[in-house]
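Notebook B, p. 112. Complex prediction, attempt 2.
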Amino acid sequence: MMPDLGTYSVPVLSSYAVSLGLLVAVVVASIWKARRVRARLEEVESRRGRAT
Amino acid sequence: MIGLLKRDLTLAIRAGGGFGLSLAFFLIFTTLVPFGVGPQTQILAEIAPGILWLGALLACLLSLDRIFQLDWEDGTLDLVATSPVPLEGLAAMKALAHWITTGLPLVAAAPVLGLLLNLPGPAYPWLMASLALGTPALSAIGTFGAALTVGIKRGGLLLSLLVLPLYIPTLIFGALCVARAATGQDATTPLVLVAGITAGALALLPFAAAAALRVNLR
Amino acid sequence: MIGLLKRDLTLAIRAGGGFGLSLAFFLIFTTLVPFGVGPQTQILAEIAPGILWLGALLACLLSLDRIFQLDWEDGTLDLVATSPVPLEGLAAMKALAHWITTGLPLVAAAPVLGLLLNLPGPAYPWLMASLALGTPALSAIGTFGAALTVGIKRGGLLLSLLVLPLYIPTLIFGALCVARAATGQDATTPLVLVAGITAGALALLPFAAAAALRVNLR
Amino acid sequence: MSSLWEYANPRKFMATSAFLLPWTAGIAAVCLVTGLVWGFFFTPDDFRQGSTVKIIYVHVPAAIMAINAWFMMLVTSIIWVIRRHHVSVLAAKAAAPVGMVFTLIALATGALWGQPMWGTWWEWDPRLTSFLILFLFYLGYMALWEAIENPDSAADLTSVLCLVGSVFAVISRYALLFWNQGLHQGATLSLDREQNISNVYWYPLVITLAGFGFLFIALVLYRTRTEIRARRLKALIAQERMA
Amino acid sequence: MSLSVTDLACARGPAQILAGVTFSVAAGQALILRGPNGAGKTTLLRTLAGLTPPLAGTIEADPDAIAYAAHADGLKSALTVEENLAFWASVFGTHDPAPAIEAFNLAPLLHRRAGEMSAGQKRRLSLARLLVTGRPVWCLDEPTVSLDVENVARFAAAVKAHLAGGGSAVIATHIDLGLPEAATLDISRFVAKQIRADDPFADSFAEGAA
Amino acid sequence: MSLSVTDLACARGPAQILAGVTFSVAAGQALILRGPNGAGKTTLLRTLAGLTPPLAGTIEADPDAIAYAAHADGLKSALTVEENLAFWASVFGTHDPAPAIEAFNLAPLLHRRAGEMSAGQKRRLSLARLLVTGRPVWCLDEPTVSLDVENVARFAAAVKAHLAGGGSAVIATHIDLGLPEAATLDISRFVAKQIRADDPFADSFAEGAA
Ligand code: HEM
Ligand SMILES: Nc1ncnc2c1ncn2[C@@H]1O[C@H](COP(=O)(O)OP(=O)(O)OP(=O)(O)O)[C@@H](O)[C@H]1O
Ligand SMILES: Nc1ncnc2c1ncn2[C@@H]1O[C@H](COP(=O)(O)OP(=O)(O)OP(=O)(O)O)[C@@H](O)[C@H]1O
Ligand SMILES: [Mg+2]
Ligand SMILES: [Mg+2]
């Protein structure tokens, strides 16, 4: 299945690894931040909901 | 507006040395380079144009964060903003004062430092011309950066992060001009380009700086 | 005293980016060098050790004037001086905080920047080792310089004037260490000397800095 | 639909983006997987570059999107400056880290490609160098956002920086060409396809490009939602503290 | 010169602080702003001075008529008293600092650097700046902080002279200024702390839909 | 803790400002320093706090017993009220900021950044710092600047509690502090402005002998 990359397997594979790694990193970071912000917002909103 | 300029120059002279200091930094930087790079005259001569321009740029950079910061901290900026002087005028005067205390001495001193780095003979007039035409752009860009970061404590490094990328074109053309002159090539085109950047920066950036100041005073 | 360190780190992180910024400056400086010097890889590789050390040194330098200045301006320094914390302890903590926010990130980032300048392979571990051992000396010396110039408005350039000559030995041995490693020579002697300078600076300069602070507060 | 500007209202934007998000994310995932799998497994080696030609499927889309991301930030910043639509500037803020990551991918894959092709990790070629500068602009833009406490001031100042920075980015590009002629490839993806790379390479490249584009849109939508929530959170906390 | 304010709403950063502020000060009149700490006196004065744009309402006065004096002194410690005044005179296009020096008895300090003066001496200098501006509407934020009794009297005399010359003044303070004839406005009744009305994020966005 | 000062001469920069200052403050007592602007109150307090060495005379008090509060607030605007107090608590090795928060009603402001407070709110925070130091002798320089009536009362209450606990205080001020039982010292009678006595260039140099 794996294509024969010849002498260049290291640069090709590491390019893909780095790219996918970085893409996954932004996606994960975005999700993580979204979750955190959302949780804090909900907490504050519910606190306000109770107050008013 | 002349009052602003006069005061800035007085302050520069009185508090902490003014003119001398950017020069001193320039001098120290150019002497540090051989310590770092090693004393081979061959290499030094080759990198001299770049190092001289780089030194001038860093000397400008180091004094940037004081352009508005002190006035902001002691409340002067608020008061000037409510005075008849337009903030655009303030920004332009600040840039001018910065250039007089920083850029101008560098232009004068550069040839001496060129000697230290074995800069080839024909390059000297071009070195001075390119610095004289290019440093005003550095001051104008720096004033804009200072206006963006006024109000941020410890903004010094942030300021360099913002300003240095904007300095790149001036640096490239300036150093290229000197390097070409050093190797006997024609150096007019880069010199004209440096002058162009300066003209553009002087015409537009005071407005951007005033806009940034207005936001920061709000 | 841990309170002082903690506060300084909090302030560094909160106001203006902290750790990232000296790194950013280092990165920008190393990218600027080729713009000045020209893109020839041959020359760049040759000057890389010196330029990397010079960049680290300037990144340290740029953040020095904030070490005591802000505390002095808002009165904190007066109050700490009348507290049970000895000024020597204050100076040591300030140096440590400066190193953590400035020197430490530089050590980590240096190899990447080495790549940009085509630093030869065997030099990398030596680059990191020499920076790790040398940057604490830069912070300690810088803290001393900052203590001398606290209270001088626009002291930034004066500070660099005072501090840069003191940085020269560290720079020479640090760059020499990397340069030797890059050309395959033995680099241990300069490394040991760098470590020696650091040890001496750390042992003595906090006392000098405290003495300078005492005079400036008077 | 009465006006495009309605989407500048946070509530409207939240609703619309909630609808668009799954679609764009889905298209992005499909395109990325198809394009990358096709490109990696089912394209032949180039006679000159060997298997390194496969790097093109990550390198080129990332590079193109890195530039487009800055362009989008420029446009949304201008919209904020002129029409003061809050969502617009938050979208610029949200896009910056994504653009920075794309820049980083282009730089890293380019460096990895350079090693076998040019025999060096890094070359001071104008194309590469201008990417490095773009990276610095992203860093500065993000750092300025972080440094300023008041959200509206931060929006104004970063917008001004984005405008001025764009002008200087263009001048830098020109300056770099002047400074060094460079080694890097010319354009492969011109409209006149016949003169460029053959179809075997072309199709998967277009698909990954679409994948990166949709990924960018999806991430920006998603992150803008987060920024809107963070902004509201900030407003609420400020309100609580005032009480 | 008169100053008249209608239904003004003032903000500081993300927060609206005051709303519905309405008052007017005729030429020759002074208005004393009172209110507890944090009520919004500084915020109001900054808005009047044109530093912060108002959220709503109108200010009827030429912004070029207003001289503002803040909590901070705005002095350069490296310059002498004389140089500080000369600088402000040049910025405001006026020329004779003599009346200002006279009014706050700065003559003995004229060649002293501002950094080498006591807190009250600095404050006197920063008040003298007002006379140098030559502007008719004074907006002053706790002008007599650090002043001793004698200098408070000097300040009161300066204000009276300014009013007699057809000027007007709005002065925030917590302590007595020796201006019994001035009207007083307690701004605590305008306090309306809340998120700025122009902040589109103040509405909740029905997260359920998301 | 008591503080007693005999024949003190204080200097500021090149100049001697005060001479012959003699007073003593017993435990449980407060002393209010009065004197016109520029008399030397700040100079005296800085000397007591150990920041400026005295030219002559003696200060009988452990320098580690003195808590000094200056004209400047000494606050970090990027830190919250709570963080500012926690920092000072850690510097002074004390641990519980609760009484300080209580005394100056800082609880509602606890998570506000110091930079986002009004002048009076900042001042309250900087006074709260005194309680956190846990030190018995307070040397305060115009502590009630910018405070409204209610907060001046809070301050007076805090001073009274401090005195009742066996502390003592020296307070420079121009305005009434609400401490009628405190002794008052007018320092204008100690003013002795001249070149510092220890300056060897003060004598004329009898040029003939040189
Ligand atoms: C760090 C190194 C590199 C960087 C930053 C970089 C950056 C870029 C950029 C900005 C583009 C332009 C995309 C566009 O706007 O059209 C591009 C395209 C391209 N690069 Fe690189 N590159 C690097 C190294 C390389 C190397 C070593 C090769 C191969 C030998 C290469 C081959 C290509 C090709 C074939 C394209 C497509 C050209 C096009 O569509 O315009 N790159 N790269
Ligand atoms: N930069 C800021 N960001 C957010 N809120 C602020 C900021 N500055 C002040 N505030 C808040 O705005 C309110 C009004 O402050 P302002 O300075 O106008 O009060 P003031 O009436 O002048 O009080 P003082 O008598 O203490 O000077 C206060 O509650 C304060 O906490
Ligand atoms: N750095 C300095 N160098 C020289 N003289 C100074 C310096 N600082 C203050 N002085 C002078 O010393 C004298 C005493 O000043 P000090 O600050 O102690 O007065 P003060 O009683 O606190 O006045 P205020 O009530 O205005 O605060 C003043 O005449 C002042 O001008
Ligand atoms: Mg106020
Ligand atoms: Mg005083």
